[in-house]
Design a protein that fits this description.
about 10% strand; 9 strands; about 575 residues; single chain; 6-stranded mixed beta sheet
């Protein structure tokens, strides 16, 4: 149970210990009231069968039946209310903690994890930790305190009663859970692995659903999903079969416990009014089985909780510094900057890298795949932290600026369009944007007429990832966001990748015309539209290999001229 010391579990024990204690106490009282209800009912039945001379003889036991009958559901309600109250508070804090952990390192995590894995963290793993409290720890604590209470009570009557209860209840509390964990650990780990893979593959396949359909491989997509789902189902069925067999044996143990109590009560409760308590003792134990039934499943679930805690603990925990400065311009200065990713420190991306981009300058950044072009954009935005050196925007470190998003806009290779209205997709950039401002931005990028023709205009629902729009239209929507936000620096990160030449030319012309007064950083893999820029740099071997204006480089740099000719197909 070392995973209970996880940073995602232990702190919440301390913070909500009063709520946990109260929930356990109420759970214990609920079980006691349930047992006393059946105990008093058994006594009333037995005593009534002897035809008492006066109704007052069974008045108090009957009153106890009413008290325990009313008290049990009330206590159960308050216990559920209390336990779920602090559980939902814990879950809320867990989700916030996970969000801030992901948000502060979104770029690095996106490079290391598939989208489906992140969805698994958000849904599956946080949900597992929620179940840890409700389905494992709570039943274990309630069951443990109930056993101690019963053994203390049994000690008042007989040492043999203590021994018998200890054997039967110990079997239910320790032996069955231990065997269940040992016999299902491999299957449970395999099931968790299948589920994680299913999340990752299904997410990727759904986001690429149009590609499956257009390529005529829809049946292949469905077949892959069915195979993955079948694997999950088969593992679940094996676990269910084991649970059914185990529960049958547990029921046999319950039966033996009842027989033991009947035998003990028959031999020890013979004189006076004691025989009336035989049925009470036997019936009183039945409701307590509810406290022990979930224990085996509760311990089996710890396999999943351990894996979830491990996955969450493996997320990097880099505390972000205080952001208390403001960027007031668009002059970018990079001085002796070195950078490597935290999980690959031997693989240096930049070493003593220096670059100055003036306010209003339009610059293209070229380089081979993996040379660090997109990484440079993330460093400029402050999404990643340099190892040494510094990056300043108008004298301010972007990692310490509170208004980076208001000063720097990014259009990526695949701009994400959310599954909500078109209006909501656009007002992400400016929450208080009016319809007039939105249509003005759409008109500037050439999409106003298209949106006007939609059945619900700006209130038209957009498919997941904007599938009903073409690649060029999605990029234009992203450009309209930039216009609404009115940022000073615009990063175009491989925006033309995957577009046909005509669409690519139109998009670049529109972007450069609309953003002519902005600082533009155009990250690209080829040289289309390069003549419209002020400056070109080529990144290679952790630094800048080529730097100059396009026209100048065509004359003075043979390698650049060769690349330009190859790109043009000359």
């Amino acid at each position: 149970m070392k995973f209970l010391k996880s940073d995602w579990i232990q702190p919440f024990f301390k913070k909500y210990r009063f709520g946990q204690f109260l929930a356990i106490l109420l759970g214990l009282l609920t079980m006691i009231f349930a047992g006393l209800l059946m105990f008093s009912s058994g006594y009333v039945i037995s005593r009534s069968a002897t035809l008492p001379e006066n109704i007052l003889i069974i008045y108090v036991p009957t009153l106890m039946v009413r008290i325990f009958g009313i008290g049990r559901p009330l206590l159960r309600y308050v216990e559920r209310l209390t336990s779920h109250n602090w559980i939902f508070r814990v879950t809320s804090l867990l989700r916030k903690k996970l969000y801030f952990r992901l948000e502060s390192q979104a770029i690095e995590l996106a490079n290391r994890h598939r989208l489906g894995e992140l969805l698994g963290l958000l849904n599956e793993d946080i949900g597992n930790l929620q179940d840890l409290y409700l389905r494992t720890l709570f039943p274990v604590f309630v069951g443990g305190t109930l056993i101690i209470s019963l053994l203390i009570l049994a000690g008042v009557f007989s040492i043999w009663l203590i021994i018998g209860l200890a054997i039967f209840l110990g079997t239910l509390y320790f032996v069955f859970p231990y065997l269940s964990v040992k016999l299902t650990v491999n299957k449970d780990e395999k099931l968790k692995l299948y589920r994680n893979n299913l999340y990752s593959k299904l997410t990727d396949n759904i986001l690429g659903l149009s590609d499956w359909v257009l390529s005529g491989r829809k049946s292949d997509f469905l077949e892959i999903y069915k195979v993955e789902e079948k694997s999950v189902h088969e593992e679940q069925m094996q676990l269910f079969q084991f649970a059914r067999k185990r529960n049958l044996v547990i029921q046999v143990v319950y039966g033996l416990l009842v027989i033991f109590l009947m035998a003990w009560a028959s031999s020890n409760l013979k004189t006076g009014d004691n025989p009336n308590y035989i049925a009470a003792v036997v019936l009183g134990i039945f409701p307590l089985f509810d406290a022990f039934s979930p224990l085996s499943d509760a311990w089996v679930e710890t396999n999943r909780y351990r894996d979830s805690a491990r996955r969450l603990d493996n997320l990097p925990n880099q505390t972000e510094g205080v952001r208390d400065q403001k960027i007031d311009g668009a002059d970018i200065s990079i001085s002796n900057m070195s950078f490597s990713y935290a999980d690959a420190k031997d693989e240096i991306i930049y070493e003593k890298f220096s670059l100055h981009i003036k306010h209003g300058e339009h610059i293209a950044i070229l380089g081979r795949s993996g040379s660090g072009k997109s990484t440079l954009a993330s460093l400029i935005r402050g999404d990643l932290e340099v190892v040494s050196g510094e990056i300043l925007i108008s004298g301010v470190n972007p990692r310490k600026a509170v208004n980076v998003e208001q000063r720097i806009g990014v259009i990526q290779q695949n701009p994400y369009i959310f599954n909500t209205t078109l209006r909501n997709n656009l007002t992400i950039a400016k929450l208080d944007a009016t319809d007039e401002e939105i249509y003005h931005a759409l008109d500037a990028v050439g999409l106003k007429n298209l949106v006007k023709q939609l059945p619900n205009g700006l209130d038209t629902m957009v498919d997941e990832a904007g599938e009903q729009f073409s690649g060029g239209e999605r990029h234009r929507l992203a450009l309209s966001r930039i216009l609404l936000e009115n940022v000073d620096i615009v990063i175009l990160d491989e925006v033309t990748l995957g577009l046909d030449t005509i669409t690519e030319n139109k998009l670049l012309k529109t972007a450069f015309d609309l953003l002519k007064d902005k600082t533009i950083i155009f990250i690209t893999h080829h040289l289309l539209g390069i003549n419209q820029l002020d400056r070109v740099i080529f990144i290679e071997d952790r630094g800048i290999k080529i730097d100059g204006s396009p026209n100048e480089l065509l004359i003075t740099n043979p390698e650049f001229a060769r690349l330009y000719a190859l790109d043009k197909g000359i």
